[in-house]
Design goal:
Helices cover 11% and strands 38% of the residues. By secondary structure, it is mainly beta. The protein has a seven-stranded mixed β-sheet with strand order 6-9-8-2-1-12-13, with no helix packed on it. Strand 58 and strand 59 form a beta hairpin.
């Protein structure tokens, strides 16, 4: 009986062991982005990324990320990687980890890891694992209106991001850098100042049921000069819909004295603080409301207190009055506009003295800081009336950052603005000169001084580009000016950024040097062209190039990049070239003695008959030992020791000896002496078959059909020679053009090589402008067509077109690049093409650039990104910014769009909102509950474990009996 008990116990233990170990293997790391900054006003490349570990375990972050890279992306799908330099690998349980850009000197001491800057307000960041195969977390700036000096911070309770005016990044040592405390050196007395450096806080346990954001609770009213016999007091106001426990907060005044709070504040309610530690100065002070981490929830500066900007201080007053917000809880972060003198109303709505009721609903709609021509005449500010009634703006006023004030008066301009209408005010009337560079802010006030609207901008203002409000109420720069009309937004082309990388900056003559421009990027995600100038007369194109320098010297290597819309940027690097070895002798100046006299690039038949011929025009024998022959590829041939050329004689070097293969399209042949100094060079375009390029006695170089290797050059007589040459060239051009262009089907494009010229026919599935202005797609097997000329033709879905162009490849995807409007011909109109219906598990490279339809369960949503899942296979869906996002995780979607692939991720780009369709589970036959809900398998395991345990216990009990 005892043996049977042991067997049963062992069986139960073994049954339990398997699912428990299986559950453990399913545990995933959960590291999220908790705060991120894309730059500061005085340092646009000062960036940081703060991570947070949600789990109960310490995590080796370097091991998870894999190849030490973070990924930066843009709305168009353009991505680039940044390598991390690690100072620390570990992110602790419930702890933070700080990644800082190399340019952010103030934060480098706090950094756990560093990277080279590349963030902008138009980009996003991804933290990936398994060498980029899986995204741990991501956030995009382009979904938020985040300015410089502001960060995006995540509310860890709601998981939502909000804009943080006082960034406070924290590292793995729990050290915090608070921007507001760093930027303002707060003086209490002449002998005392609060100017903290890094602050170390233990992780507080905040007892509020949700995270409090800045301005959720505000300082609403206070008395700094009470009536005799009474005390100072401060009133708080709760802007939220939830009751808040205040024991996690404290008040701090200018001397640093802190009053810790106790009690609760009701939703939209008031809370009075009396018996304040320290005191509020009558002539001016600063009041902070902070949480226990030191984060500023609200602050008010009044009177003469100098926090670096006296202009925005609230007024001060004497008894029996208080200083109170004009509207309870309303906070614009400009104390001079938010606060007025009031009748004290402890715990009740504020009563501002001498204030009149004026309408609101007037906004700044468009401003033009830098018009073409005379700024004083054409510069304008446009206001818009959002109300359904006409408004008279008499005595309203505008001002800018310089403090220039313009009172709107019927004595100068019309003051009436019709309902839903506009009022344009030109600089000649207002005398307000908007800054063309740096920063400026424009504000409009009611006659009582209440701020109604404001807008700020910064940076260089391009000529004839206005700052205008879009349909969402957000401001963008636009090339279309619309004074007195509804705004039209035509986004500007942002300048790309050129970046050069090379492993060596000191090399030897003859050594191959590799240059990498792939870290260059375009904020708009446009495709880039790369142009290299090596400083020695040689140039190349492409993101990755190599070069051989032949002469010892310092060379300035320049990379120029250009986006598809003409914007350029350049970067340079200095390469120092050292002599490979000391030479035993050098020649005097050989200019005019040694010439390249004939070259033969394109023989009929095999190219092994190519040759380069040298001529000695002097009356002396010249030793050519260690001279060099080379072409534009810098494949070079060193002439053997002891080789000499007699006076007035020729020397021929054949391809079989030199191994130099001359290009038929264009090339440059050079001869250098033993000191690697250039002696002669010949450059040509288009070598026609069986013609040599020969030098005449007058030095002129011409094509001739008479080949004379090792002999004096011969040419046809002027008349017949020109005729023969002309006829041959014309014949060769025609033949070659016909031979080069291949007529192919769409499905063949993926197998062709870049630069091959093709002609094909297809039906348009996505016209230009849906994704990019110069890109459209052909249906069927799918082909991406890039238009490389200015006037984009008007194309529509369903049109059958003939396309003639050149194969190009980007991100491993083939397409056709068209260089002329005449190379796109509309043949007929057919029905708009239907998408190819695919299961997610069947998605592969064969369908790239095709219009497809897929369906699945939404497994994850992040900003504009949706992950669609089916049978453990996943496809990423990227939405345009203006798409409606009514669906949630767990919903079922059918998606139509263009299939593309970036790195190892398949992505579908929907064309419009109707390409997204929700549906019921009952209509999705290909899914099983196990595929859709992998957590169900876990629940099933737990149920079986429970059943087995109970069964085992009953069996054990029965055996015992």
């Amino acid at each position: 009986m005892k043996v049977r008990k042991i067997k049963i116990s062992f069986l139960l233990f073994f049954i339990l062991l398997i699912p428990i170990s299986n559950l453990k293997s399913q545990t995933l790391e959960n590291v999220i982005i908790s705060e991120i900054l894309h730059g500061k006003n005085n340092c646009k490349t000062c960036e940081f990324i703060e991570l947070y570990n949600l789990t109960e375990n310490d995590i080796d972050l370097k091991k998870i990320i894999g190849d030490d890279r973070i990924r930066i992306f843009s709305p168009s799908g353009f991505t680039q990687n940044r390598k991390l330099s690690w100072k620390n690998d570990l992110i602790k349980s419930k702890g933070y980890f700080l990644i800082v850009s190399d340019d952010y000197k103030d934060l480098l001491d706090l950094a756990d890891a560093t990277f080279s800057s590349a963030l902008s307000e138009k980009s996003g960041i991804q933290i990936t694992k398994n060498n980029g195969q899986e995204i741990l977390d991501q956030v995009s700036f382009f979904d938020y209106n985040v300015s410089l000096d502001q960060s995006l911070e995540r509310n860890l309770q709601t998981n939502q991001f909000f804009i943080q005016d006082c960034p406070n990044p924290k590292n793995s040592k729990e050290e915090t850098f608070n921007f507001c405390l760093q930027s303002n050196s707060i003086s209490a007395t002449p002998s005392q100042s609060i100017s903290p450096s890094f602050q170390s806080f233990s992780q507080p346990l905040l007892t509020s049921s949700f995270q409090i954001l800045p301005s959720d609770i505000v300082i609403n009213e206070f008395v700094s000069d009470p009536i005799d016999g009474e005390e100072e007091w401060i009133e708080l106001y709760n802007n939220t819909e939830k009751e808040i426990d205040l024991k996690d907060f404290y008040i701090e005044e200018g001397s640093g004295a802190q009053t810790f709070l106790n009690g609760k504040i009701l939703p939209k309610g008031f809370f009075i603080i009396e018996k304040i530690k320290g005191y509020l100065n009558n002539d001016g002070d600063i009041i902070f409301l902070k949480d226990l981490t030191g984060k500023i929830i609200d602050k008010v500066t009044y009177g003469k207190w100098d926090d670096g900007n006296l202009n925005d201080n609230a007024t001060n007053t004497k008894d029996p009055y208080s200083i109170a917000r004009i509207i309870d809880g309303k906070d614009t972060n400009e104390d001079n506009l938010d606060f007025k003198v009031a009748k004290p109303t402890k715990g009740a709505p504020n009563q501002i003295l001498n204030i009149e009721n004026f309408v609101s609903g007037i906004v700044i709609n468009e401003i033009l800081p830098n018009p073409k021509g005379d700024d004083s005449e054409k510069e304008f500010i446009e206001l818009k009336n959002l109300n359904d009634i006409d408004i008279d703006l008499e005595n309203w006023y505008l001002n800018d950052s310089s403090g220039k004030k313009f009172i709107i008066s019927s004595k100068k301009i019309s003051t009436k603005i019709p309902k839903k209408g506009f009022l344009t005010i030109f600089r000649k009337d207002s005398q307000i000169a908007l800054n063309n560079s740096g920063q400026d802010c424009l504000k409009i006030f009611r006659p009582d001084g209440t701020l109604i609207d404001s807008v700020c901008y910064s940076g260089e203002c391009l000529e004839d580009v206005s700052f205008a409000r879009n349909s969402k109420g957000e401001f963008e720069w636009t090339e279309i000016l619309t004074p007195g009309k509804e705004n039209e937004i035509k986004k500007l082309n942002q300048k790309p950024k050129a970046v050069i990388f090379t492993e060596k900056e000191k090399v030897l003559t003859g050594e191959e040097v590799f240059f990498d421009g792939s870290d260059s990027f375009d904020p708009d995600g446009d495709n880039l062209k790369f142009f290299w100038d090596f400083g020695d007369g040689n140039k190349k194109e492409g993101a990755y190039v190599s070069h051989i320098f032949l002469k010892p010297k310092k060379y300035k290597v320049t990379l120029k990049i250009e986006d598809g819309r003409g914007a350029t940027d350049s970067a340079s690097i200095t390469i120092e070239v050292l002599k490979k070895k000391a030479e035993s002798f050098s020649f005097a100046d050989l200019s005019g003695k040694i010439f390249i006299s004939e070259i033969f690039p394109n023989p009929k038949g095999k190219d092994d008959q190519e040759f380069i011929e040298i001529f000695n025009s002097s009356n002396e024998e010249i030793d050519l030992s260690n001279f060099i022959l080379t072409d534009k590829t810098e494949k070079y041939y060193e002439i053997k020791e002891g080789t000499k050329i007699k006076p007035k004689d020729f020397l021929v070097f054949w391809k079989k000896d030199t191994k130099i293969s001359l290009d038929n399209e264009e090339d440059e042949v050079r001869i250098l002496n033993s000191e690697k100094e250039l002696i002669d060079r010949v450059f040509y375009f288009k070598a026609f078959e069986n013609f040599s390029l020969s030098r005449k006695e007058n030095g002129e170089i011409v094509w001739t059909s008479i080949l004379t290797p090792g002999k004096k050059n011969e040419f046809l007589n002027e008349k017949s020679g020109n005729l023969e040459k002309e006829e041959n060239l014309e014949k060769e051009e025609k033949t070659e053009k016909e031979e080069l262009i291949k007529e192919v089907k769409l499905k063949e494009i993926k197998s062709l090589k870049p630069k091959e010229k093709v002609k094909t026919i297809g039906i348009i599935s996505v016209p230009p402008g849906v994704f990019q202005e110069n890109i459209f797609y052909l249906s069927g097997s799918g082909a991406r067509v890039k238009i490389n000329f200015d006037q984009i033709p008007e194309l529509k879905p369903g049109q059958e077109v003939q396309v003639l162009g050149e194969i190009f490849e980007e991100e491993g995807e083939k397409g056709i690049e068209v260089s002329s409007k005449e190379d796109i011909k509309i043949l007929t109109f057919k029905s708009p093409p239907l998408p190819k219906e695919l299961k997610i598990e069947d998605v592969n490279e064969d369908f790239l650039s095709s219009l497809v339809k897929i369906e699945g369960r939404v497994s994850k949503i992040k900003d504009n990104f949706i992950w669609l899942n089916d049978k453990d296979k996943e496809v990423l869906i990227i939405l345009k910014n203006n798409f409606n996002r009514s669906f949630r995780e767990g919903d079922f979607l059918r998606v139509v769009g263009i299939l593309r692939k970036f790195e190892n991720q398949f992505i579908v780009f929907p064309r419009e909102e109707k390409d997204l369709e929700s549906f019921d589970l009952s209509s999705l036959k290909s899914f099983t509950s196990e595929n859709l809900f992998p957590e169900k398998k876990l629940i099933t395991n737990i149920i079986w474990i429970t059943v087995l345990i109970l069964g085992g216990l009953l069996l054990f009990k029965k055996v015992k009996l």
